[in-house]
UniProtKB/TrEMBL annotation, chains A, B:
Protein name: Ornithine cyclodeaminase family protein
Domain of life of the organism encoding this protein: Bacteria
A Pfam match: OCD_Mu_crystall
Length: 348, 348
């Protein structure tokens, strides 16, 4: 209990790259499937109704001998004052003796590990050689979803950008996306990000206003909106499509037509959490999907369960975001920080 | 999200005194009763079965515009290596914008606010002018229970020390108790602790091996052991006694004969939490106490509910420890730290 390492958001941006974030998230899912990582119950609360909420995700990462938690708060009105809407902290403790090891700003960490989740869903569940990605939602997190998917799925060469409420925002993202992507670190050995910038330049980005038409061209979809009603109708989704659902992470949130779940194969990060707060919550409640038929993605990654069975399957990955993603990424950040002496060590 | 204040355990020992801790804890109970403070569900987990566990207590303290959490871990085997068994951290966030404000070492804070809980139970529920206190349990926390009770209840002049397993430990505590008490800060305006030391000297401390006999002499009892079976039998408790039960805070823990609950008036810090993990858990499960008849102590402190009705009542205060105690005390520590510029400010 002598000291703790404090790692700022700037430090995290400096340390964390996309490739290693994706590896950490894949590893977190696998360790959970292997019973070497445990998630604890989610705590969530409205702080100011409709304007601010927070959640606490905690877990034990036996695989790396640590445990801890992340508290993230969302204050929608912060942006009007030029402040970030999302704030939060990750705390890491040593599983050998309970001593605190690190306090890490959770903002960039959360953006990166959430982007990695959508990408890992596509990597393991979409048809091989997927070339087109449709992204529903054009906010801050959409950029990280695209960044991680271009990294994890090298065959993607075209990305459709769709905003269900405001076409203009999709066009603005189309104009700025390459610059935004190029700012995210993507190779720890290539500090100038040169290979990453080359990769970005091979991709075509197009804002679309007809989602039905875009879906007819694609094999891979990511939904990343705060919606509480279906944005994608069942009949728009062609056979063979994979959808990573990232937006729904609280009761009442939903992005897909729930009747879609009658015919799709369902994968999740954690069955318990997804059933309560994820995209599948409505389908579960209405009995359109049976918990017994849901597969945790870690079991696909470690080879114990089958992912996609044919080129006609529609697959859905419902990612609610689990503490183990945070702990796995925090562990990586901490190792680099210790090695390079980044951050501030403070007596406790 | 620019910076956070880190406050070490030494800083907390320097800042926090018994009198203000008791005021904070009383205030936390009252604000909860007034709906100006909210507790969120407890998360608890075994880390190493029987050897290490942890819990996360979180809440919103609207009264002081903050929210946050405390993670506390217990590693029983640490002591064999000369390390503290209890470790933990408190994090405080601003309820106006979600920004982190402070990270505070939770060890001394927890000891102080837990001591205050037992004392507040006696102050509000024991007979007036209680002179004798029986303390069941002689560990580290027993000292804080005694310290806070001597502070909150000025009529106490005699303290019986009882260890249910090991008489020798009670004798050792009898020898060291005055020194231990004198080290705890007890008046922010009296840095030499002189008045506090005078108070300690007026009290007689006696190790006892016959708990039945000690109980026949007393009006106020505190139980503070890790026991999982009843230590006090129903027939030993005379009419008019008040018992503050502090030890039970996890499923399976118990210090009193559960049949006692058929006849006592029951007070708790939080009905939901006490029913699950507190002293009343067994009595609740066996239907010996009805939830509707349980009173939260905050309602007694703010005058909305009656406490003791007669000098013959047996009253029990079941304190499981709630996040609001931590947040109220953390808020006080933070105010003093900001005023006197104590702690380390680190960029986030």
């Amino acid at each position: 209990m002598n000291s703790i390492r404090i790692i700022s958001d700037d430090d995290v941006e400096h340390i964390l790259d996309l490739k290693n974030t994706i590896l950490c998230v894949e590893n977190a899912y696998q360790q959970k499937a292997n019973n070497k990582a445990t998630i604890l119950p989610l705590v969530s609360a409205d702080l100011v109704e409709g304007k601010a909420d927070m959640d606490i995700k905690s877990g034990i990462y036996q695989a790396e001998n640590l445990f801890g938690l992340k508290l993230v708060a969302w204050f929608g009105e912060n942006e009007m004052q030029g402040l970030p809407a999302l704030t939060g902290m990750t705390m890491v403790f040593d599983l050998k003796n309970g001593f605190p090891r690190a306090l890490i700003n959770a903002r960039h960490l959360t953006a990166m590990r959430t982007g990695a989740a959508g990408a890992v869903g596509i990597k393991y569940l979409a048809k091989k050689n997927a070339e087109v990605l449709v992204v529903v939602g054009t906010g801050h997190q959409a950029v990280f979803q695209i960044a991680a998917t271009l990294t994890a799925v090298p065959t993607i060469r075209k990305v459709y950008l769709y905003n269900p409420r405001n076409e203009e925002k999709a066009k603005l993202l189309q104009e700025s996306i390459r610059t935004k992507l190029s700012r995210i670190r993507n190779d720890i050995y290539d500090l100038k990000n040169e290979k990453w910038i080359q990769r970005i330049e091979t991709v075509e980005f197009s804002a679309v206003n007809n989602i039905e038409s875009a879906l007819s061209e694609t094999d891979a979809v990511i939904t990343i909106t705060p919606s509480s009603q279906a944005l994608i109708r069942k009949e728009w989704v062609k056979p063979g499509t994979h959808i990573s659902c990232i937006g729904a992470d609280l009761p009442g949130k939903q992005e897909l037509d729930e009747t879609l779940f009658k015919t799709v194969r369902v994968f999740v990060d954690d069955v318990g959490q997804a059933s309560k707060v994820g995209e599948i919550q409505t389908a579960i409640r209405l009995g359109m999907v049976q918990k017994e038929l849901i597969t945790e993605i870690g079991n696909v990654i470690n080879g114990n369960e089958k992912g996609r069975l044919s080129n006609k399957d529609i697959t859905v990955f419902d990612s609610t975001g689990i503490a183990l993603q945070d702990l796995a990424v925090a562990d990586y950040i901490l190792k680099i920080a210790e090695e390079k002496n980044i951050g501030t060590i403070v007596n406790l």
